[in-house]
Amino acid sequence: MAKAIIAVLLCAIFVLPLKAQHPQRLPDSPKPKVDRRVFLVGTGLLAASKAADMWSTRIMLDKGRRELDPLFGGPHPTNARLAEVGAATFAGESTVFFFTERSRHAGIRWAGRALLSLSIANHAELAACNARSSAHSHACRPLIPF
């Protein structure tokens, strides 16, 4: 009988603390949601401005002008190189915009929107500058140097 009492006490000493170490699971916190309208409008405008910039850059290069951005790999990049760099930068900017839109902090969301707006304005300005340039006009410079 004494052995049974000792066995029960030992089980109580070692088993009950193990049960206490498993706390109840808390419900998952709500996941941040992306405002789809803002995201779709922003990425749509970015795609349109980038496409206009690439199109006007190709026309400018066909007129005999040079590409000044070293990212394109030289003064006369091919159509494939223009498409590669344009698609890669679009994917990167869209991804950054998506993750800033997912943030719970309004400041981060608005900073992402401001950065995207600046990029859209930059590409629209470069497209307009490329479209009005002639063989002897000034070089088009981006609004933002990076």
Could you outline the blueprint of secondary structure elements for this entry?
Layout: H1 2-20, H2 36-62, H3 79-101, H4 106-132
Biggest beta sheet summary: none
Instruction: Estimate the helix proportion, in percent.
Output: 55-70%
Rounded to the nearest angstrom, the distance between the terminal CA atoms is 83 Å
SS strand fraction:
under 5%
**Which term fits the overall shape?**
elongated
Number of helices: 4
Mean pLDDT: 81
Task: Give the SSE string.
Answer: HHHH
> Which structural class is indicated by helix and strand composition?
mainly alpha
The tally of beta strands, per DSSP, is: 0
Which spans have pLDDT < 50 for at least 5 consecutive residues? none
Rg value: 29 Å
List the defining traits of the structure above.
146 residues, mainly alpha
Task: Walk me through the structure.
By secondary structure, the protein is mostly helical. The chain has a domain at 36-132. It is 66% helix and 0% strand. It is built from four helices and no strands.
